[in-house]
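pasting for ref
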Amino acid sequence: MKNDSRILIVDDEISIRNLLRMNLLNAHYEICEASSGQDGLDKAASFHPHLIILDLGLPDLEGFEVLKKLRLWTTVPVIILTVSDDEPTKVRLLDAGADDYLTKPFGPEELLARVRVALRHKGMVEATPIFESGNLKVDLNKREVFVSETQVKLTNTEYEVLSRLVRDHGKVVSQAQLLKQVWGAIAKDQSHYLRIYINQLRKKIELNPSEPTHIITEPGVGYRLI
């Protein structure tokens, strides 16, 4: 029975890709492969995977750099392949946005178990750099925002707030999360920052800022992009 989940493998070693492909195809996942960091980024944007398996040792971009670029526009789960099992590497990976890691060599059962866990925790989120809702379009890869096909100029901070709502569109993002992600932990109690920028965003992307249809306030909790 075919699995609905799409998985992107980013690894320059043919033998590793063959091993991963064989085991994942046997588990009925749909597979796409990339042999370099840039190829992986391009295919993440076009294949829209639900999960990415990313090797750290790539020929063009370091795996950490690929992970950072992915996290600019997607929250899709990423499992890192690494030969290093030391604690600093693991901490650095998790801090950079990895969901899990596999230390080489690994067995097929461990691989499939970690894939199932990652997909279960994130649900069926797919990697796509384009968000569209009504007259609003956000290209997270190019950092461009359009309203009714007209490009809207946002400040860096306005864009950071909007992009974080886009990545979790449909979900409520708490004020605390947004403050920490955009301004850092030091701003966790500065909710007035957020209100100012949400109001500015609404003036730029909403047809009627006083009756928003894109950025919805969830009283006492945070905001949701719909």
